[in-house]
Write a structure and sequence with these properties.
Belongs to the glutathione peroxidase family. This protein is of the alpha+beta class. It is about 30% helix and about 10% strand.
């Protein structure tokens, strides 16, 4: 009995060390909170942060507005990178300075629910359109897709924002909208989650576009589905086209082509 008692302290110490060892490899609180593996945010478990970890640490420990593709671009790594491969190659990430015009300082949800920082479109000519599936203007999807296919390689992009604000003509959920757009009109330009473009629950982007203080020249309420705002490469709102005006009309095409001829502003990453 006495001999057994002599071994108890050593046994307790051994068990304690074993417990500490296993604790060192336990999933950290933040990994549990976000339901991510350690290498999602770290080069190695418990090691230096990769680009996601640096973003997380400098944004109040939150991924609420995190756009993986955009942040990976700023960090100089692949969006799919994990662990060591996700270590930033840009020395001052996440404090990289990129001039982002006010109209692109919004994070929106794409049609699949992923965060999209509109800053990823800096330097592009952008057509922002509120869409609907059951509207008399819905066939404009075809003309929009044709424009996108024709000019996308020159730096043009269309951002489609479904809305049920007019005549309840967009009643479906995001996946139903996506299925409709891709199957009927073969849409490939970026589509976003359904939002409100007017009223008390108006999306901040559309508040910016329609507010006379932020958009004195083209601001004003959205009149119907398929109103169109044209954004220059420098991020200036340069035109607004009525909901009923087809994107194939010469004045729309000419305005887009004119903006594409303008030089893209250089991104300052110093």
């Amino acid at each position: 009995m006495i001999r057994t008692l002599r071994w108890l302290p050593a046994l307790c110490v051994g068990l304690l060390l074993l417990g500490l060892g296993s604790q060192a490899h336990a999933t950290p609180a933040f990994a549990k909170k976000e339901n991510k593996p350690c290498v999602y945010c770290h080069v190695v478990p418990g090691g230096p942060r990769n680009f996601r970890g640096l973003y997380y640490a400098t944004h109040n420990h939150s991924f609420a507005d995190f756009d993986n593709e955009y942040e990976a671009k700023l960090a100089g790594v692949s969006p799919d990178a994990m662990g060591p491969d996700a270590k930033p190659t840009v020395a001052d990430y996440p404090n990289v300075h990129v001039d982002v015009p006010p109209v692109l300082r919004f994070v929106m949800k794409d049609i699949d629910g992923n965060n999209v920082n509109l800053a990823r479109y800096v330097g592009k000519v952008i057509l922002i359109v509120n869409t609907a599936s059951l509207c008399g203007n819905t066939p404009q999807y075809a003309a929009l897709e044709q424009l996108y296919e024709k000019y996308k390689d020159k730096g043009f992009v269309i951002l489609g924002f479904p809305s049920n604000d007019f005549g309840h003509q967009e009643p479906g959920d995001n996946q139903q909208i996506k299925q409709f757009c891709t199957s009927k009109y073969h849409v490939t330009f970026p589509m976003f989650s359904k939002i409100d473009v007017k009223g008390d629950t108006q999306a901040p982007l559309y508040k910016f576009l329609t507010d006379k203080e932020t958009d004195p020249k083209f601001g004003g309420p959205i009149e119907w589905n398929f109103a169109k705002f044209l954004i220059s490469r420098s991020g200036e709102i340069v035109a607004r086209f009525p909901a009923g005006l087809s994107p194939a009309k010469p004045e729309v095409v000419a305005a887009i082509e004119h903006q594409l001829e303008q030089p893209a502003p250089s991104e300052n990453t110093n």
